[in-house]
Amino acid sequence: MHRSAPATPEKAHAPAPRIRLARVLACAAVPVMLVAVGCSSDSGGDKKSDSASSSASGGKQASSSPSLAPAKFKKLPEACQSIGAGSIDKYVPKAKTKAGEVGKTSDPQSQASCTWNGLDDKGVQGSLYRWLDVDLKRYDSTQGLGAGDALAQKQFDRAVSAAQSTADAKNVKTSPVSGLGDQATAITFDLKKTDADFKYGVVVVRTANVVVAVDYNGTGYQGADAPQTNEVQEGATVTAKEAVAAVATANNK
Predict the structure, then answer these.
(1) First and final CA of the chain: distance in angstroms?
(2) What pLDDT digit, counting tens, does each position of 196-213 carry?
(3) CA–CA distance, 65 with 144 (Å, rounded to integer)
(4) Do 79 and 239 contact (CB within 8 A), yes or no?
(5) pLDDT for the residue numbered 220
(6) Nearest to 220 by CA among 14, 2, 19, 24
(7) Where is the segment annotated Disordered (predicted)?
């Protein structure tokens, strides 16, 4: 879900530094890509031929595979409503769209995402840029592929690996997050883009057959400092907890 944050509109008669800032924001905060890998299975051959052969030889047909337990969660919440307004105010001050921007999906009950971004102008103290992205993926139990929890486990591992191997990332650190879902991992790192030093906090959570991945990052412009590592990790962790709770709530209705 590589989505670049759109440029912040330029102010009328803005001085040259502000114009340059608007331009660099067009490609500034690209969130870490946490992509689901599609699954497929082969038909396994001609069933009629196999059946006929078995009958002719007098042998017994193979017993059917044992049924899989149904997945716990049957649907996803609306991604842009999974994070509370208070958290958006705190972690994405001056968000361009407080309601969030919905990510495109062909199946909203299997995949959903939302992003927020904002530039908080502090005047002579510079500007603070923040980007928040939440991505949710749900897996059903499927014969030939496996149980929903097991499929979600594979996506969890892929998402953690993707964050850890972000191109050009520096100071990559990984740590478990206790008390969140069935398993959760936090990844933090530094990344230099458009001549600015960004701090990233990524939290990936598996709750039964759903994977929640939150990417929170930011930087400072025109003299403002980038956020501290603990700040982005906190923001990613708090919002990931809200998204996980939203999954449970959506399935209790």
Answers:
(1) 29
(2) 999 999 999 999 999 999
(3) 9
(4) no
(5) 95
(6) 24
(7) 40-71
One-letter amino acid at 121 equals: D
- pLDDT given at position 67: 84
How many CB atoms sit inside 10 A of residue 161's CB? 12
Q: What are phi and psi of 232, to 5 degrees?
A: -70, -35
**What strands lie across the sheet with 210-221, from one edge to the other?**
101-102, 111-121, 127-138, 210-221, 196-207, 183-193, 170-176
The tokens describing 129, both together, are: 């840029």
Per-residue pLDDT, averaged over 146-154, amounts to 97
Q: What residue ranges in 77-195 does DSSP mark as E strands? A: 101-102, 111-121, 127-138, 170-176, 183-193
Backbone CA torsion sign across 229, 231, 232, 234: positive
Token duo for residue 66: 């044992």
In this structure, what token pair is assigned to residue 26? 């067009």
Q: State the DSSP string of 6-57.
A: PPPPPPTT--HHHHHHHHHHTTS-PPPP-PPPP------S-HHHHHHHHHHH
What's 96's DSSP letter? S
Question: What is d(CA 95, CA 228) in angstroms, rounded to the nearest whole number?
Answer: 20
pTM, two decimal places: 0.77
Structure tokens at 72: 């716990």
Give 146's DSSP letter: B
